[in-house]
Amino acid sequence: MIHTEVPSHGLLFASFLYRVDLFSKDELKSLWEAQFKEGFSFIPSSNPLADYYKKEMGGELSRIFFLTSNPHPREFLLSTKLLALSWERQWAKDNKRMVNVDIGFLTLENFFLATTKNYSHRIYLGQNIFTDLTYYFHQGELQTLPWTYPDYVDEEKRQFFSWARTFLLQKLGN
Predict the structure, then answer these.
(1) Is 37 helix (H, G, I), strand (E, B) or coil?
(2) Nearest Cα to 42, choosing from 172, 173, 139, 159?
(3) Pick from 124, 99, 113, 114: which is nearest to 161 by CA?
């Protein structure tokens, strides 16, 4: 008889890059928690791509990360990315985003982001959504890859995700 392995659950992640004159971190936190219950938030000290996004979004930009505190099946990545895209469209002005929402998923083995852009190292999930492996866990640390987005390379963010992985490990009872 053939058996397939059921993958472990993980934590859903969101990064909201937003215009501070139009949104507050508390508004975004309430929105996230209304959908996914209370979790963790983190405000990174750097936003390497803020100038890149400022071309589209204008204004002063800030970023906040959210992470669920309850594990979810990996299948939630696709539906959560579709939800985030609907939020971006809802908040857009003159067909330009005022909030950029990255959606990702942290497992014991790795961290991956959902994206609408195809590339050679991305895997198609369905409904025009791909997944991008951002980190993998090796030798006790989250490791970056050559294609890891500049927004996720710095040590501060890797430490946050390492802490979250430790939390997940305890939550899953491993």
Answers:
(1) coil
(2) 159
(3) 113
Task: Judge if pTM exceeds 0.85.
Answer: yes
Separation CA 130–CA 122 (nearest Å): 6
Q: Are 138 and 162 in contact (CB under 8 A)?
A: no
- Sign (positive or negative) of CA dihedral 117, 123, 129, 131: negative
Cα–Cα distances in angstroms (integers) from residue 79 to residues 30, 72, 75, 76, 84, in the given order: 19, 12, 8, 5, 9
Q: In this predicted structure, what is the pLDDT of residue 12? A: 98
59: which 2 tokens?
């204004």
Beta strand ranges found along the chain (DSSP E): 11-19, 39-42, 61-68, 99-106, 110-115, 123-126, 129-138, 141-144
Structure tokens at 23: 């949104």
State which residues of the chain have pLDDT below 70.
none
What does the domain layout of the chain look like in residue ranges?
Answer: 11-172
